[in-house]
Predict the structure.
Amino acid sequence: MNKPTSFGIWANTDKPAFWKVLPDIVSWAKDKGLDLYITTRIESQLKDLDLDSQLIESADDFAKLDFIMTLGGDGTILSLARAVGDRSTPILGIHLGELGFLAEVVLEDMFTRLDAVAAGDFNIQKRMVIKCVVNNGNEPHTFHALNDIVVDRGKSHRLLTCELLANDDFVAKYKADGLIVATPTGSTAYSLASGGPIVIPTFGSMVVTPICPHTLTLRPIVFPDDQVLKISFPEKGGQDMALAIDGQVNEYLKSTAKVMIQKASFEINMVNFTDSNYFNTLRTKLGWGVRGEN
């Protein structure tokens, strides 16, 4: 890859670890001669710290950056991915949280990895995004998700009834607490916790996983990424459902709502390295394949 000349910082400013490491990142940027950009949220909380930086004032400013690092947990990466959208700015995740499955870098190795990025010694891994169009009795709303789109029973204690079509072919009628449509990236999140399969991040697919289905025969199913999935709710006049995009954007749906999900027209570029190992990440962060302590 080409050597970067500029980068941005997007962070969970509620984490003390971020403020502790920020001055070191600023010093590193000066040593490498890189132009630094920060978000307005970070700038508003700087107090007396002078960063000699420029501001990311709108999403279009991402186009000025050679990469943007995110410091926090998986939620911080997901929010950045939605903000970056189709602008293709590479994202380097630095883990400050408890799990941080999406983050490529941990604090202990941060400057070793940053030195590699500054030297152009890194790769770009493209991650599939899904688009969700919701018709909810008003103007259609469009959302994008890097992890998953979830429809659940909301505030009700009743089971949710929904029908799923794939390219207009009837798939199933679900009675469950909800339905998860996950990308390969999101297959290790809520979908996995609900019994869904692990999907390699670069494999083009969508995983549909029911949440606590009221039958033993409805299992998670993997669709190719050329399918258009449609979710509707046949019990008219029923309870309002909740829609969650990457667990962070919520909208309540009427029983007449229609939800359409398909592969987005763009991907998210994630920074990784030649020695990155997805299966090692599964083992160390999720305990995959581990039978217990020796």
The first strand starts at residue 6 and ends at 11. DSSP finds six helices and 18 strands in the chain. The chain has a mean pLDDT of 92.
